[in-house]
Amino acid sequence: MIDDKRALLLYDIKSQSTYRKARKILDAYCSARIQKSAYEIIESQSRLDNLFHELSDIMKKETDRLALVTMCEDDWGSACCAGLPQSFRQQVQNVYIL
Known about the structure:
Blueprint: H1 4-10, H2 16-35, H3 38-58, H4 62-73, H5 77-81, H6 86-92
């Protein structure tokens, strides 16, 4: 469970639509990992890779990086983020360690 301060940071992101896309893709990726669906895992990884250009704008701000990390930490996301493609993890690890 994330605290109130971190929850507020989620709303400080300029591009809410990009964040929602990233969240949706991450959820699909996590679900695929739990179900061990190889095709869906690869598809989700590909969608994450394609989203990097949009995410790069979000990653420029400290609060937005924190929000992305929070996206990986909330609920059951942390276990899935450990298995995310290296390129995605490196985007976040510029400041935070997953």
